[in-house]
């Protein structure tokens, strides 16, 4: 059957009348036109790869709620750093799984220069110095209650926590960490950490502030990976932000910049692209997005069920961050994306 009716000439005339002859689809007609006019592109230089470190030797230990993600030995982290270098990924981010026996009320293991993150940083810096190292500053991998700060009763103490965080930052930077990432959301921590680093002669150490970090359900698999999920008493809503707020994100980020942050971050990522867009446009400071563990696992789970094309969903999700204005993205997909970009 002919799909055209007698009305077709009239339809064409009407379409030209409303579009003024502009046919937007002209630019989408072929791969080459689409590539020619693409406004933003994802590149390997946009990627930060978060990895998990554990005690002991041997193979990576799978994280059950994060398919394809493993807790690595220190030697495994060095191997991952080599992989990052070979793929062109600029930075890796280190997160420790701390044995429950080493956790305590104040997170004192955070200050031990022999802790996992510090050992991994030193090993990576000596073997693969060309890869940048980002380390979280927060106490949750080290506390027996799973909170990012020091607790008294059921309160998280701000200033006492900042005192610990400053010392944690110095120990990490002295171990080879290039970028300190305060992810604790305590007030005034960026200024105090900057001061502590400078006093220790660590003026070149960068600060990427988790400025707009929301209290979120999307951190669940990460907490499994670092072992703080089972520990966590209550929730983090007295320090992480309320997801209803956007103005507050602007104030938090402006404050962190005033305190000396070199870069800012929004976390989680996908449900907060409006915040990424707003902060990057309004503040003009390199703004990063964290595609969290929960976002990663959602895509992986759906892909494993055959409900969506995992490879395409991965690329589209990361492309969305670039379009929103992100300077870069922390993503567990980083090595896979980098390999994909390299193969193209
Ligand atoms: C620790 C920290 C968290 C994440 C990064 N740093 C979890 C939390 O705040 O509870 C989440 C990362 C992810 O979900 O991938 N302060």
Automatic annotation (TrEMBL):
GO BP terms in the entry: protoporphyrinogen IX biosynthetic process
Keyword Zinc-finger: no
Pathway note: Porphyrin-containing compound metabolism; protoporphyrin-IX biosynthesis; coproporphyrinogen-III from 5-aminolevulinate: step 1/4
InterPro entries recorded: ALAD, ALAD_AS, Aldolase_TIM
GO MF term set: porphobilinogen synthase activity; zinc ion binding
Keyword vocabulary terms for this entry: Heme biosynthesis, Lyase, Magnesium, Metal-binding, Porphyrin biosynthesis
Catalysis performed (reactions): 2 5-aminolevulinate = porphobilinogen + 2 H2O + H(+)
Magnesium keyword on record: yes
SMART domains in UniProt: ALAD
Active site: 213, 267
Binding-site positions, Mg(2+): 252
Pfam families: ALAD (PF00490)
EC number: 4.2.1.24
GO CC field: cytosol
Protein family (similarity comment): Belongs to the ALAD family.
Subunit architecture: Homooctamer.
Protein name: Delta-aminolevulinic acid dehydratase
Gene: hemB
